[in-house]
Design goal:
single chain, 294 residues, alpha+beta, four-stranded antiparallel β-sheet, 9 helices, 12 strands, globular, disordered C terminus
């Protein structure tokens, strides 16, 4: 089996793999669920920033890698087109190729998983709040105002009579296009099987775009930010630390600047580095806001 390093070299041999995409700060500062939640309410906190998600009880919350890939695709297309109405492609197979997901059928196949996660993501109410001693701010929103998907699961390459589209909620559109985080698409290709690795990668390249000083982040704070499925029990803390350590090893293989950070008994020693995409390519992003998150 190829190592991540050898896969990177294979990808980098093809110049188009240097393509970059965008993801919204709001969904990077705190992570969405990693595995299927039992509840319909979800909350993550990062310093003064809090992400809350409320699901339709009949559908459930989005979770895993697919919603993360969807959010990255949505943000990238919104930034690229500067349009709230996005075209998903003429066929199901075509759209899945854009997400770098191999189409497979059956109850446990990727086609079923994608359709389920789209429904979960689009039906979820999301709340972003910032609160410190002097200021409280927040916004509640759905991701989209509406969508029409004309796809045939039985014939995934079939071109429909109508294009599949989604219309982004105006508040969400403004949120994701005003301060997007830029990343290399090949990183998502290599990390897509690990939701936590995706979260850590996005967070580190964002943090490296503005941070100047080293800091040690305690394990408890990291768990509040990234530990989407781990309880604050002794066993839960141990499990989170082990999974986080495994995930950051994968990120270091993809993103060289991440090698500056170090796992310590008391937490993560963060040492500033360069964002993964050089700043000359990141000119589209405006100056980042800090709300005292990690």
């Amino acid at each position: 089996m190829k190592s991540i390093e050898s896969k990177i070299q294979t990808l980098l041999d093809d110049g188009k793999e240097f393509d970059h995409g965008y993801i919204a700060q709001a969904v990077v500062l705190a992570s969405i669920p990693h595995s299927k939640p039992k509840e319909t309410y979800f909350r993550r906190q990062n310093g003064d920033y809090t992400l809350k998600m409320i699901a339709d009880p009949e559908i459930g919350l989005p979770y895993g890698s697919i919603p993360r890939l969807l959010l990255a695709w949505i943000t990238t297309e919104a930034v690229r087109t500067k349009n709230r109405e996005l075209v998903l492609g003429e066929s199901l197979a075509g759209f899945m190729r854009q997400l770098d997901i191999e189409p497979t059928g059956g109850k446990k196949g990727t086609i079923t998983a994608l359709r389920q996660q789209i429904k979960r993501l689009f039906a979820t109410m999301i709340s972003f709040t910032y609160s410190d001693n002097e200021h409280d701010a927040g916004v509640n929103m759905l991701i989209i105002d509406g969508y029409d998907l004309w796809w045939s699961p039985k014939n995934i390459n079939q071109t429909g009579l109508w294009k599949s589209t989604m219309t982004l909620n105006e508040k969400f559109f403004k949120e994701i296009t005003s301060r997007p985080i830029v990343f290399y698409t090949y990183a998502l290709k290599l990390l897509r099987k690990s939701p936590m690795a995706l979260d850590i990668y996005m967070w580190l390249t964002y943090k490296n775009s503005y941070s100047k000083n080293p800091i040690t982040i305690p394990w408890e704070s990291l768990q509040l930010q990234f530990g989407a499925s781990y309880p604050m029990t002794t066993q839960g803390k141990q499990d989170f630390k082990r999974k986080f350590t495994e995930a950051i090893k994968k990120v270091k293989a993809v993103y060289p600047e991440a090698k500056k950070v170090e796992i310590l008994p008391e937490g993560l020693r963060y040492v500033p580095g360069q964002p993964h995409v050089p700043k000359i390519k990141n000119a589209r992003s405006t100056k980042n806001r800090e709300h005292n998150p990690h």
